[in-house]
Amino acid sequence: MARTKFRAEVLTPEGQVFDDEVEMVSTRTTVGSIGVLANHAPLMAILDPTELRLYKSESDVVRFAQGEGYLQVVDNSALVLVEEAIEPDKLDRSAIESRLKDARDSLEQAEEGSEERNRCERAIRRYEAFLEVGDGS
Amino acid sequence: MATQKDIKSRIASVKNIRKITRAMEMVAAARLRRAEQRIEELRPYAEAIRRMTRRAVEAAESIPSLPLLEEHDSIENVGLLLVTGDRGLAGAFNSQIIRAGNARNRELQQESAQVHWYASGRRGVSSIQFRGLELAAGYTGFTDRPAYADARNIADDLIAHYVDGAVDRVEILYNGYVSPMTQEVRHETLLPLQQAEVLGSEEDGEGASPSDEASDSGEGPDHSRSLWIYEPEPEDILKRLAPDYVEISIYRALLESTASEHGARMTAMRNASENAAELIDNLTLEANRQRQAEITQEIMEVVAGAEGLR
């Protein structure tokens, strides 16, 4: 069944990576997984690293590995603002694994409750999510 | 006196150098265009973040305490981030940053603050190490084409050091991109963030950029707060937005520095090519003069020989 389409845009600091009509945007906020359909109520949310899926149709799905960012839905259009949006086949597995290892090593040394520790935890979540996206493709 | 052969070989070597400097000029010009484009590409993202912040500020019942906006009571340790390039041969590009860093260091010492050095780019890192100073953190290998992840990496370090109290203020020195011919040293304070810059006092935001205003009024009908869904609360969204400003500032500085580096290299290499051309002209002239002198000399000898036979 074809759904109503609406505009979705994915913007990163390195430029726009997607701007098209879609049926659904599927991603994850800090609160949980979310699927945005047409005519969604205005929404502002913080996004966690995960797989971002843009459904142009039931079968035509554009996928990205998404870093931290924000989702804003207003006037029936969705704006995904993320630090990184990498196509799954462009993920560099070995580079991600080495960064993940670095982050885990620094986490061991970081003091409890310090900003340094938060930062390592964020990095670990990000790279683990990227690896999962890579595995899925 | 150099012989004709010496001069000819010098001409050949200068010609080779000119080929290299011309090629470097061309490469720098191509990379400069790409770097300019990347500065442009950042703009929509930065503006979207700013608009989102303004909405979150409007929606928040109270502005949460943001450690990145809080000034430390006393300024004892100042982080100084020097943004240089990985490679030289770009005129004054690297040296003017290093010089500005030294000058700032002296100023801060007079205010009895201790400087903690941070540097991006191999030139800055090696200059600091060469002078036997302690490098808090160095970042190399990306100045040709900085990625946002590189900026985030630097920002995360600086933020962690600031919040955890290792430094009380962070300043950045980089080459601002004015035009391919001109770069200017810019000196900015990264941390603490300026309240007006982030939370955008109303008059500040509206006066500064008309484009923001236009898009805001476009979203006008949805302004009533109650209709919006926030995940999580606007206060928490604000907390997450603050570090983004540091990341974006650093990313912009890295991009501008890269564009400046290519611009400076292009100019330096063009000058070098022109100098080489001039040198070739002069040497060719010298070679011709020598050749004529030799011919004259030979004729004199023949004439003198003929005279002697008479």
Topology:
The complex is a heterodimer of chains A (about 140) and B (about 300).
Chain A: E1 6-12, E2 15-22, E3 24-28, E4 33-36, E5 43-47, E6 50-55, E7 61-66, E8 69-74, E9 77-82, E10 85-86, H1 93-109, H2 115-136
Parallel strand pairs in A: 1-9
Antiparallel strand pairs in A: 1-2, 3-4, 3-6, 5-8, 6-7, 7-10, 8-9
Chain B: H1 4-59, E1 77-83, H2 93-110, E2 114-120, H3 122-130, E3 135-139, H4 148-163, E4 169-177, E5 183-191, H5 195-199, H6 202-208, H7 210-218, E6 229-231, H8 234-309
Parallel strand pairs in B: 1-2, 1-4, 2-3
Antiparallel strand pairs in B: 4-5
Helix pairs in contact in B: 1-8, 4-8
Key descriptive features of the protein:
heterodimer; A: 137 residues; alpha+beta; ATP Synthase, domain 1; 5-stranded mixed β-sheet; 2 helices; B: 310 residues; alpha/beta; 8 helices; 6 strands
Report on the structure:
The complex is a heterodimer of chains A (137) and B (310). Chain A is 28% helix and 40% strand. With 137 residues, chain A is an alpha+beta fold. Chain A folds into 2 domains: 6-86, ATP Synthase, domain 1; 91-136. In chain A, the strands form 2 sheets. A 5-stranded mixed beta sheet of chain A has the order 2-1-9-8-5, with no helix packed on it. In chain A, a hairpin with a 5-residue loop joins strand 6 (50-55) and strand 7. With 310 residues, chain B is an alpha/beta fold. Chain B has a 5-stranded mixed beta sheet with strand order 3-2-1-4-5, with helices on both faces. The longest helix of chain B is centred in the C-terminal third of the chain and has 76 residues, at 234-309. Chain B is elongated and about 120 Å long. Classes of the chains: A alpha+beta (137), B alpha/beta (310). Chain A binds chain B through residues 11-16, 29-31, 34, 41-46, 68, 70, 72, 74-75, 79, 81, 83-84, 111, 114-116, 119, 123, and chain B through 38, 41-42, 44-46, 48-49, 52, 55-56, 59, 67, 147-149, 151-152, 156, 159-160, 162-164, 218-219, 221-222, 227-232, 234, 236-237, 240-241, 247-248, 251. Strand 5 of chain A pairs parallel with strand 6 (229-231) of chain B.
